[in-house]
Design a protein that fits this description.
By secondary structure, this protein is an alpha+beta fold. The protein has one domain (11-58). Helices cover 24% and strands 39% of the residues. It is built from 1 helix and 3 strands; from the N terminus they run E-E-E-H. Strands 1-2-3 form a 3-stranded antiparallel β-sheet, with no helix packed on it. The structure holds zinc ion (ZN).
Length: 59
């Protein structure tokens, strides 16, 4: 993960929270002190199955 402002790789994680639809992380760049957050989605097989079922219903 790189800083979106200065592209530095000296980024530390301030807070990590697991949510139902992914992992939310607050990050801070140690070079320019910009704080930003990332939201990482985890794709699981059960989610794929859920999407398939929704598509089946549309037919
Ligand atoms: Zn930075």
């Amino acid at each position: 993960m790189k800083c979106p402002i200065c592209k530095s790789e000296n980024v530390r994680v301030l807070d990590k929270r697991n949510r139902t639809k992914g992992i939310y992380r607050r990050r801070e760049c140690e070079d320019c002190l910009t704080r930003f957050s990332t939201h990482e989605f985890v794709v699981t097989k059960s989610l794929d199955k859920h999407l398939l079922e929704m598509m089946e219903r549309r037919k």
